[in-house]
Amino acid sequence: MSDPSKATPEPEPFRVPDGDLDDLASTLAKTMAEVRQHGVILDRLGSEPVSTHQPTADTSTAGADKAAAPASVFILALGGEAYAVELTALSDWVNHLFLPVYGREISTTRPWCDQWHEHPEAVARLHALWLAWQQLTDAEAGLTGPSTWHRDHLDQALVHLRAPDGPFAACTTSPTRPNHRVLATPAPELTGATR
After folding, report:
1. Which of 48-52, 93-97, 170-174 has the lowest mean pLDDT?
2. Can you say how many angstroms the Cα of residue 154 is from the centroid of all Cα atoms in its chain?
3. What is the C-alpha to C-alpha distance for residues 126 and 176, in angstroms, rounded to an integer?
4. Cα gap 103→114, rounded to integer Å
5. CA distance linking residue 49 with residue 112, whole number of Å
6. Given a cut of 80, is residue 162 above it in pLDDT?
7. Distance of CA 151 to CAs 29, 115, 143, 156, 163, Å?
8. Which of 5, 64, 106, 116 is the most buried (most CB within 10 A)?
9. Entry pTM
10. What is the pLDDT averaged over residues 172-176?
11. What is the chain's Cα-based Rg?
């Protein structure tokens, strides 16, 4: 039997100074958002169909590579379940990262619509912005990747999205009286054969 006086003492509890708690909470929130985003990306990658195309003897390898490659990752090129999955992932990014950081006050000169996902132009612009964010915030993008994203992608997207005549122009800008309306688009031009 061991001597109780020689037992290893309990370690002292670790205490974080109160002044550092805000930084710790901020870091934890940012880490949790990144983990959520990685989970969304992994879910999306796991749900993509696996190509079962088997090249035949008379099929060139270039043709097989082209058939196996996805047609587009842009949300407007997707349909059905693939569109829904991508919109869910985009919504997570918009709601948990984009709006908390870049969603400035709503006004008539900077409108925003809580139902942005029903505005096709907004979905397209936000998705393009998110794709660029994924590429330019990756470690492989280098240290200037985030700066490039802000300068070349975010600033331009915000100018168009939040413009007084942008996709949210018909939506009420008052948070106490929300109103949502998708503006009509021009009718397609009829060709001579269909007149």
Report:
1. 48-52
2. 12
3. 25
4. 11
5. 35
6. yes
7. 25, 26, 14, 8, 18
8. 116
9. 0.59
10. 68
11. 25
